[in-house]
Amino acid sequence: MPPKRSLSPDHSCPPPKIYTSSAITDRASRFLAIYSPTLTAQQLQSTPSLNSATHRITASRIPSTQRLLAPSQQPLYTSTHDDDGEKYGGKAVLSVLLDLNITGSVVVARWYGGVMLGPVRFDHIKKCAREAASNYRDSPEQQRVKKIRIDKDDQKRRKDLIRVLPERDQSISVLRGLLNEKQSTPSPSPNAESKASPAKLPEYSKLPLKTLENLERARDATIGWILAQIEKAEVAQKTTSAAG
Length: 244
Hints:
The chain is α+β, with helices and mostly antiparallel strands. It is built from 6 helices and 6 strands. Strands 1, 2, 3, 4, 5 and 6 form a 6-stranded antiparallel sheet that branches. Helix 2 runs parallel beside helix 3 and helix 4 packs parallel to helix 6.
């Protein structure tokens, strides 16, 4: 029977990219961090270049599989950490992921040089972890992903404003009429009313997002001012009624 042919490795998918920090050396101890958005902490821990390290401190933060009760609820995450003999080291690494609000796994390797460093070792651990994770966050690939996400959010925001601003205009019109009634402002004569042309509203669909946001703030300020004037007019009416 002829020997079985060994399966050739699958090169169709490139290996996951690992992001590395600069090394920090302090009194013969050496620190280095690696980060991956997709690999588990255990997979990173087994990276051959870290096999000789005295400690391979890990932390991971991944989206939780638990379903949200409401779409508006903040996303949930599952976080883990492992000191690997460096007491409190795992918590220090995890604090970096939380501070950066980033998901993925990071391993900080320490090669012990024979001299105890004291609390400064945690500064080295966190600095390496931050640099490795930031190298991923600031990479051109992630900047492109971020830009696509921002553009998508801007499009949704713009669509919402195009819908909301005419509603604000209608509210302002109604509130102004109510304010006129409260202040007993006489209505214009029929002839003057027939000659007056209605205020022309902007074509919101043709305006950029920044202008729409400025208009929303202006409309909200106008509504707030009119409501305050209505309240003053109502107080004045009560005072006049009490005096009478």
